[in-house]
Amino acid sequence: MKPPFSKNTPLSQFPYNSRTGDNEFDTYVPSKNYILHGFKPGNALQASELNEIQENFYKNLTLHNILLKNWIFIGSSLFQPAIPTEPIRGPSWFGAVPLHPFQSVSYINGVVSIKPDWYLVDDFSGIKFWIYNNTVKNIPISSVSNNLTIVLDITSGYVNGNQDTNLKDNSNGYLNSSLSLGADRYKFDINGVKITSNPLSNQREILKITNGKLSYINNLLFATI
């Protein structure tokens, strides 16, 4: 699924030079998911980094609005609880929440596919961030599987301008390696999708299998297996 953004954001133009489109939702390269700027004493502050912070804020706001629109289920026959005696609890569980409940994920012939799209995940401190999955990630599930959870396997780390030269100073409209480095970036990597009965600390729950039913963590029925 194509991200709902253009690479050419308002502040990506010269002389503002924001790299949000390159680092977060460029549809033509693997997603970097640089979600935070880490400023360090002694490193230069780039004007473009301040512009990126602005654009990241509005990107997150836009995605939250789209999420709420896609997950409004009052009066919709598509939205049924997996456990009829329990309510659907909304799309804000701690784990991995897809932007589109019936487009971001699919289940066909015993295979769950996590598609290219945006996913809202909590990091290891509990703060939530939007990250982009840029490739289809498949996991086969058995018809006899039960009481299992499908998770995104996620790692995080820090990247500086020596590791990604795109982060070096671009005050003149191009990368200038002669100037000192700016902020580091805190990033997420989606390594794959797994099925488990005991999620690890680096895994974010997205679906569960209970009594032959595949549902999201919030009890929204997705499929019968």
Brief synopsis:
By secondary structure, the chain is of the alpha+beta class. It has helices at 20-24, 47-71; strands at 34-38, 96-98, 105-108, 111-114, 117-122, 128-133, 137-140, 148-159, 184-196, 203-210, 213-216, 221-224. The chain is elongated.
Across the major sheet, the strand order is 1-9-8-10-11-12
Quickly count the helices. 2
Biggest sheet layout: 6 strands, antiparallel
| Helix content class | 10-25%
What would you call the shape? elongated
**Mean pLDDT, all residues:** 88
Order of helices and strands: HEHEEEEEEEEEEE
As residue ranges, the low-confidence spans are none
User: How much β-strand is present in the residues?
Assistant: 25-35%
What count of domains describes the coordinates? 1
Radius of gyration: 19 Å
| Terminal Cα span | 25 Å
Topology, number of strands: 12
Q: Which structural class fits the helix and strand makeup?
A: alpha+beta
